[in-house]
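Design a sequence for this backbone.
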C-alpha cells in the first residue's frame, strides 16, 4: 500500500484513517513505527491520528521531551520521538514498560534509534518526500498489523 499525500492535510487525513481502523486493544497494546527523514510528515501523521482519537490539546513533536502521553477514552497513546536519543539505554529512564499494557498505542518516530529496547512494531509506516508532498507506505509487521491494514481496505 502506497499513499500519495500532496499536502499536510492529506497526511493528517491518513493518520485519522489509521486511528479509525485501529482494531480492539482490550487485551493487548499496539506499536506503530514512523520512519523517514526529517520533514517527511511523521509528526503530521501522528497529529491526525491523535486528533481522530479525540485529543484537543496542542500536538507537537516530543523532540526534546522524548515522550508525550495522551489519554483518551478508551485508549492511551504514547508519542515518542527518539531523534535526540544518544544511546538506546536512555529509554530505560522513560519507564516505558509501565505503558506496555492493553488499550495503549505507541507512536514512535525514529524507532531505529531505540534499537532492541523497543517492542516490535505492529505497523511500519515509511514516509518519504516527493517533489510535491509525501509518499506514505504502511505495512504490517504482526497479525494485529495485518488486521489493522485489512480494516483500511
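Sequence:
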Amino acid at each position: 500500500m502506497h499513499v500519495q499525500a500532496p499536502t499536510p492535510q492529506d497526511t493528517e487525513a491518513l493518520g485519522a484513517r489509521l486511528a479509525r481502523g485501529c482494531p480492539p486493544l482490550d487485551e493487548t497494546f499496539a506499536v506503530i513505527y514512523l520512519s523517514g527523514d526529517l520533514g517527511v510528515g511523521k509528526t503530521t501523521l501522528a497529529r491526525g491520528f491523535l486528533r481522530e482519537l479525540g485529543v484537543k490539546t496542542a500536538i507537537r513533536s516530543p523532540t526534546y521531551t522524548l515522550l508525550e502521553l495522551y489519554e483518551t477514552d478508551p485508549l492511551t497513546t504514547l508519542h515518542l520521538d527518539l531523534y535526540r536519543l544518544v544511546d538506546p539505554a536512555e529509554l530505560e529512564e522513560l519507564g516505558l514498560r509501565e505503558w506496555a499494557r492493553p488499550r495503549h498505542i505507541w507512536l514512535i518516530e525514529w524507532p531505529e534509534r531505540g534499537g532492541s529496547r523497543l517492542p516490535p512494531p505492529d505497523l511500519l509506516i515509511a514516509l518519504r518526500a516527493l517533489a510535491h508532498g509525501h509518499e506514505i507506505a504502511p505495512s504490517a509487521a504482526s497479525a494485529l498489523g495485518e488486521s489493522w491494514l485489512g480494516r483500511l481496505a
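Strands lie at 3-5, 30-35, 67-71, 76-81, 104-109, 123-130, 133-140.
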